[in-house]
Amino acid sequence: MKTILNIIWLVFSGFWLFLGYLLAACLLFITIIGIPFAVAALRIGVYALWPFGHRVVERPDAGAPSCVGNVLWLVLAGWWLALTHIVTGIAQCLTIIGIPLGIANFKLIPVSLMPLGKEIVDTDQPFVGRW
To answer: Among 40, 43, 61, 67, which one has the highest count of C-beta atoms within 10 angstroms of its own C-beta?
Structure first.
């Protein structure tokens, strides 16, 4: 089932969201200080390309630097990427088939706002990130 949802997702929004994250990563790669943020953008972009079958967990070793980085990310790129997920999620929820896709878009909002200190894992790994 997750393969079918991922294919539908890719056709209707995943590719365009991935391009948005890729654009954000390219803009952030221009500066030296933006490289960690660009890596986070690429990681979330791949997650936005195939979201079903994956989930986001907190990294236990994330500390104060990731908190400061998340504030910078929110100002530089996070707010407009989250806005993209909101608009796309609302548009997808207008159809019955698009409701699971819209919910997946809404689940991407927190990680698009604050990506540092988070890890994307398969749903087959139930205990990752709990220790």
So the answer is: 40
pLDDT digits (tens, 9 = 90+) for 22-72: 988 898 899 888 888 899 889 888 988 888 888 888 888 878 888 888 898
Report the distance separating Cα 55 and Cα 84, nearest Å. 19
Model confidence, pTM: 0.80
Distance CA 82, CA 77 (A): 9
Residue 51 to residue 69: CA distance in whole angstroms: 24
Q: State how far the alpha carbon of 70 is from the alpha carbons of 8, 23, 66, 130, in Å.
A: 31, 18, 6, 21
Rounded CA gap, 5 and 65, in Å? 36
Q: What is the DSSP string of 71-120?
A: HHHIIIIIHHHHHHHHHHHHHHTTSTTTHHHHHHHHHHHHHHH--TTEEE
**Rg over CA atoms, the chain:** 15
